Amino acid sequence: xxxxxxxxxxxxxxxxxxxxxxxxxxxxxxxxxxxxxxxxxxxxxxxxxxxxxxxxxxxxxxxxxxxxxxxxxxxxxxxxxxxxxxxxxxxxxxxxxxxxxxxxxxxxxxxxxxxxxxxxxxxxxxxxxxxxxxxxxxxxxxxxxxxxxxxxxxxxxxxxxxxxxxxxxxxxxxxxxxxxxxxxxxxxxxxxxxxxxxxxxxxxxxxxxxxxxxxxxxxxxxxxxxxxxxxxxxxxxxxxxxxxxxxx
Length: 248
Hints:
The protein is of the alpha/beta class.
């Protein structure tokens, strides 16, 4: 959706779903990156924290962020997600808002998530993916080829730690293809999903500070506008350092 304009100042709003419960492995860094990179372009960047219960203001959000959590935290939020967030979130996406969902958040946007105990938690079906329980955890550094998105650099780097195995339905494009790591399920080489303006991934770390090109990609998709360039020398140095470390 296009940013709201107040006077001569353009507003950019990030809606953070369940910040108190779905926030592990540096997820706050993703929110800060989105806000700062908009501010540096002259936007009035605002954060809307969307905790449990009915929340106002979701219709004005440009990018929703849904972070990761353990099984316990996912169980605590999924009923509220179904009851209070699914409809306004779906409506916002239909208007053009973007969603970045990491790990547990990614799983709950799909059809269901199966816990290690075999309980299936229903997702909201915003993306056509399912997550089955796995055995051995997928843990370690990850490199993803995202050349199909047209990004430069054409890689994302991060860290994964998940036991769920996520499978995309036919026709749902992945975010990219893993060159290092397990990705969605350790079987088909896919990582995440890029379904319209909805981006799911297992990359923690946090993801966006060392992948500034992807942060801008998400913002641009939400705003339907090309952003001015920034000096990303430090951010890309962190990106390249991780690539070198993983390739040793």
